[in-house]
Amino acid sequence: MISIPTSPHSSPLLATHDITKSFGAVRALAGISVRVEQGESVAIMGPSGSGKSTLLHCLSGVLVPDDGVVDFDGGPLSALNDRQRSHLRLSEFGFVFQDGQLLPELPARENVALPLMLTGTSRRLALAAADDMLGRIGLGELRGRRPGDMSGGQAQRVAIARAMVGHPRVVFADEPSGALDQASGHEVMQLLTTTCRIAGAALVVVTHDINVARWCSRLIEIRDGIVHADRRLSAATTSGELR
Ligand SMILES: Nc1ncnc2c1ncn2[C@@H]1O[C@H](COP(=O)(O)OP(=O)(O)OP(=O)(O)O)[C@@H](O)[C@H]1O
Fold first, then answer.
1. Which spans of this chain does the record mark as coiled coil (predicted)?
2. Which of 51, 157, 177, 202 supports an S-S bond with 225, CB 3.0-4.6 Å?
3. Is the CB of 46 under 6 A from ligand 1?
4. What is the CA radius of gyration of the chain?
């Protein structure tokens, strides 16, 4: 685990303080302050181009903001160099993308084991942990199958197993059900929110779809690179159970 120098004040798990980010003349983030508490699930919504993915990438240390600060676990991500930030992403964060981004040449269990092997776990232990995770989410029978031989929903569930196998403290998901039909999308969101809740991981989901956002306990709406609204969602539907 990487230790970040801590700030003196008590802090949420993850927070941005007035961050800005521009790409050339395009101001993607124009001063955003948000907080994500431990174990909380937060949806980020907003029109196309409003800065949702840029915010997600700044929160997860993939991008460095031009101004402002991102704190994780009480310390600024900017205190870490590139190598330390990469290690933090592998060891503390999990990622789920719209198309899963599984490696097509590897069977499910090797895709799931990969983040552990990249942080130094032996192949044998990483594969055992991957098999265990796949079994716990009801995908044991898929462990030898390559992504090209799975449905989109199955591949997304394997991607969730890969995101969760390292016991992340935060899972970042960018349109995790965006490429799926409604029923598969529902299953994927149920699995994602349930596994995060059981693991005590915070979840940050970028989505265009209010039905996806409703799986979360909070909704942050972004417009033109600033926070337009930040509210609790009362009817969080996070009641699915793991098989
Ligand atoms: N790497 C980049 N290079 C240039 N411009 C970028 C880059 N990444 C984002 N932008 C621009 O920054 C703005 C915000 O982009 P971002 O992807 O964060 O929006 P978004 O809300 O996630 O959009 P969408 O819903 O369409 O995915 C857009 O105008 C986009 O074109």
1. none
2. 51
3. yes
4. 17
48 lines ligand 1 (CB under 6 A): yes
Helix axis angle, 182-199 to 152-164, nearest 10°: 10
The mean of the pLDDT values for the chain is: 90
| 20 phi and psi angles, rounded to 5 deg | -125, 150
Task: For ligand 1, say whether the CB of 200 is within 6 Å of any of its atoms.
Answer: no
CA 156 – CA 142 distance, rounded (Å): 12
**Looking at residue 147, what DSSP letter applies?**
G
Model pTM score:
0.90
Give the least confident one: 8-12, 30-34, 77-81, 93-97: 8-12
ipTM higher than 0.90? yes
Q: Give, using CA atoms, the residue closest to atom 16 of ligand 1.
A: 51
Domains by residue range for the chain, with CATH: 14-232 (3.40.50.300)
